[in-house]
Design a protein that fits this description.
Strand content: under 5%
Largest sheet: none
Radius of gyration: 16 Å
Shape: globular
Structural class: mainly alpha
Distance between the termini: 46 Å
Number of helices: 6
Number of strands: 0
Oligomer: single chain
Length: about 100
């Protein structure tokens, strides 16, 4: 591959991860993990975690809105899926590092 290929936005398509040769495995785990985040609301309401509901609720609702309301209309393999997943991953690393130190 030429160096120019890495700069081409088409190179960043996620077809092979989203619905390609993995039989949709990436999309399954993405939907599973993000939907599982809803348990954070339950844990917050029951007092098992020290999170505040007003902090947790917008984060979880926005993720579920993107996942169930927007992603089904995004073309297969669009780079926005990759960007969104990277943002969510970075956020979780920062969040759990904070909880560990706290």
């Amino acid at each position: 591959m030429s160096p120019q290929t890495y700069l081409d936005i088409q190179h960043w398509k996620m077809d092979h991860y989203w619905e390609g040769n993995a039989n949709g495995e990436f999309s399954f785990w993405l939907w599973y993990a993000q939907t599982l985040q809803a348990w954070d609301i339950v844990l917050c309401v029951t007092g098992i975690t020290n999170n505040k509901l007003l902090n947790v609720l917008p984060q979880i609702v926005s993720r579920l809105f993107i996942l169930y309301g927007i992603f089904p209309f995004v073309p297969t393999g669009h780079y926005a899926i990759f960007v969104c997943c990277m943002c969510w991953s970075f956020t979780e690393v920062v969040r759990f590092t904070y909880y560990t130190i706290k």
